[in-house]
Amino acid sequence: MSGHAPKSRVTVAEPGWVKALIMLAGLGFLGFFILLPLAAVFTEALRRGLGAYFEALVEPDALAAIKLTLLVAVIAVPVNVVFGVAAAWAIAKHKFPGKSLLLTLIDLPFSVSPVISGLVYVLLFGAHGLMGPFLREHGVQIVFAVPGLVLATMFITFPFVARELIPLMQAQGVDEEEAAITLGASGWQTFRRVTLPNIRWGLLYGVLLCNARAMGEFGAVSVVSGHIRGETNTMPLHVEILYNEYNFVAAFAVASLLAILALVTLVAKSLLEWRHGAELAATARRH
Amino acid sequence: MSGASGFSLFKRRNRSIIPGFGLTLGITLTHLTLIVLIPLAALMIRPWDIGLSGFWHQVTETRVLAALRLSFGAAFVAAAINAVFGLAVAWMLVRYDFWGKRVVDAIVDLPFALPTAVAGIALTSLYAPNGWVGQYLDPLGIKVAYTPLGVVVALTFIGLPFVVRTVQPVLEELDTELEEAAACLGATRFETFIRVIFPVIFPALLTGFALALARAVGEYGSVIFIAGNMPMVSEIAPLLIVIKLEQFNYAGAASVGIAMLILSFIMLLVINLLQRWSRRWAGV
Amino acid sequence: MKWFKRVAITTAALVGLAVSPVWGSGQILNVSYDPTRELYKEFNAAFAKHWKATTGEDIEIKASHGGSGKQARSVIDGLDADVVTLALASDIDAIAENTDLLSKQWQAKLPYNSTPYTSTIVFLVRKGNPKAIKDWDDLIKPGIQVITPNPKTSGGARWNYLAAWGYAADKAGGSDAAGKDFVAKLFRNVPVLDTGARGSTTTFVQRGIGDVLLAWENEAFLAINELGADKLEIVVPSVSILAEPPVAVLDKNVDRKGTRKVAEAYLTYLYTPEGQEIAAKNYYRPRLPALAQKYATQFPNIKLFDITKFGGWATAQKTHFADGGVFDEIYKPGQ
């Protein structure tokens, strides 16, 4: 058979025209839906030159928006990381009834409209919400303040880390952990010394995506923000405000900052994949 | 782990020697309850102001039905487009070598990370009749921005990574020996794809489709800029929720929200089951 | 009960976060609608200076802008505003009805129905007026595309709607039935329905959609300034509505925060010659006769009718814009 090997390699490839068609479809699709919008953002942002571009970014309200966005992400992401790791451990390393239901519930925020995810917190913590009067009495402001933004962001980014880790940990099985436990390691030691090294790249990938989404969320935070300039406006909301003030250059400048953030995230992720390809190949398998 | 006793039902079935089940499941359920379930319960409670018949009246209003039809219909079309082209992209990234492949691979995730409002504004400026793309489509009589087609474009954008990222790893793992064997047995390339490759990637494709669909149904930020927002024509369900809210009609807004939630949940559950079934059927 | 403890700690952390952004008394929040951004940017700076000069205290005025109805809802849901400056009285009525933040008689508290400045509805067309749009009747001609926001979500759009209705009802041989018929025809010519006034302006100017934009007078002036006098011009109809965007102090909030004095001074300052001048410079029609005189050349002379024609805002809102109201009845695209 060895003589046939090169020939058989040829037979598993498509004819040239099919390959060309697939490439054209794939690249054309990405070009239209990703490259063009991205190009539009940067063209508009740089329309009046670099000076106007940077001026828009160092304006006090823009800086406040950038700071607030970072603050929200810094709180929301770690909480979701703890949850994601815990959920993956429970689901991937153990068997219990209702697992499918739990997985579906974890997926749920993906399919809940961002508008609803903002609305639920207004219904819960708003002045007319279930807990509104109680909070009011104690002078606690949740919606239209930072905590509301954090909660809505957490809701939106809820599944990312868990979704990333569950398939990875399922694929890795339980053998290594069982061996460690049998050899007398404690649960925490097992997690730190055995599991964590195995999942660290997947974890980082999940964190990056979670973070990118946390910074870019618009619909949900729009409902709970109150839009107070320099106070409760995150970057995406600030983009909308600038856009509504006909300040298109500044709007797209802030937008491009978010796009750059997204691109840096993606390049970092891509570098990871390149250096740790084998580990991550399993990661991306989502079910 | 006193708290774990509450989960003794689960524990009895759990024969793993790996510890921490109670702790981790506890954290999971606590977080799930606090962040997702309790707030959603607050949403569920609200329409009781108007009773079940009031709820039914709200969600069967012709304008609400039209909005739901558009949201789910456009999401379905967008997810289908993503399934076809996403498969092409995944295939291209796994099977072919070309210049700049790594960059292409990286930017696939962009719609995850780009703020939806930014995407909406950018897409509108592209597809408006005087935009980069729109100016060429307009003479042909194709209107994208401010029509339901615009909704599909926005939803395709935000759902783009899902299919690629679910199919890609499965394709990578796929053993070419199987294909070679099929080819040796005289199957054409097309037959091999249909009989050998497709059954293996189908569950992943379905998952990607489901995720793209689920994400698209509720999308708001990117759509409102491009949709035109005409009642009965290009008004999506999430916008209707916002409109009802602005008229202080909380019960109505919550009713539409719940209708969407129930439909999405059923959809996800069905697809999860379908996927499990297809996986078994494919013998993977 | 480890779980209980964990929950308690999480809650405590959230509460700790929540307490942090409590407003100091050196700060007030003005919750306003979209087209007033430029007005209040200038006015807030002027008032802060005035306040410092008269009392020696520093005051920071925070502003929140958005669709008028959305802003009212945020206040009802607990956005901690000291004053509201919204697009129409019915939005402040809604706050008075749904909360105890201010008295139902709020509109009697300040001069001129609590509206320190007024505006009206005019047409914005493309340079040279290629479709020769002169008056309301031209808007319902076949083939004319009219851009207006959605009256359900935008205060400005409600004024648009009522102005059109009032024109047709007042015309020789006009009636309420004629008004209804006219508005129905008008909205049949609307190809895009944005959620807010600013969205509509962007659609009209940036995207090049439509032949005529129905807009607040101040928005039309601003659009010409910001987006190009070489592209747009204003057409003044024969008749329009006197749009009165009202202001009010939220009693309960200012008493709790101890900001009553400054909040009231803030709104009163709008009625002073200085405040009126700033309003006029931002293309709002001033109330003070002296200022109105001074800026008379800036504002075209239009025959104006006011909201009493529709029985006041409470009635107009219920009849026309509530769910199942006249607007829902006449506006059914796609059918």
Question: What characteristics describe this protein?
Answer:
heterotrimer, A: 287 residues, mainly alpha, 15 helices, 79% helix, 0% strand, globular, disordered N terminus, disordered C terminus, C: 335 residues, alpha/beta, seven-stranded mixed beta sheet, four-stranded mixed beta sheet, 16 helices, 11 strands
What does this entry show, briefly?
Chain B is mostly helical.
Strand content of chain C: 15-25%
Shape descriptor of chain B: globular
Q: Treating each run of at least 4 consecutive H or I residues as one helix, how many helices of chain B?
A: 14
Q: How many E strands of chain B?
A: 0
The biggest sheet of chain C, with number of strands, parallel, antiparallel or mixed sense and barrel status, is:
7 strands, mixed
Helix percentage of chain B: over 70%
Structure characterization notes:
The complex is a heterotrimer of chains A (about 290), B (about 280) and C (about 325). Chain A is mainly α and about 290 residues long. Chain A has 15 helices and no strands. Chain A has helices spanning about 5-10, 15-45, 50-60, 60-95, 100-110, 115-125, 130-135, 145-155, 160-170, 175-180, 185-215, 220-225, 235-245, 250-275, 275-285. Chain A is globular. Chain B is mainly alpha-helical and about 280 residues long. Chain B is about 75% helix and about 0% strand. The longest helix of chain B is centred in the first third of the chain and has 34 residues, at about 60-95. The two termini of chain B are about 40 Å apart. Chain C has about 325 residues and is an alpha/beta fold. In chain C, about 50% of the residues lie in helices and about 15% in strands. Chain C is built from 16 helices and eleven strands. In chain C, strand 1, helix 2 (about 35-55) and strand 2 form a beta-alpha-beta unit. The longest helix of chain C has 19 residues, at about 35-55. Chain C is globular and about 60 Å long. Chains in contact: A-B, A-C, B-C. Chains A and B meet through helix 1, helix 2, helix 4, helix 5 and helix 6 of A and helix 1, helix 2, helix 4, helix 5 and helix 6 of B.
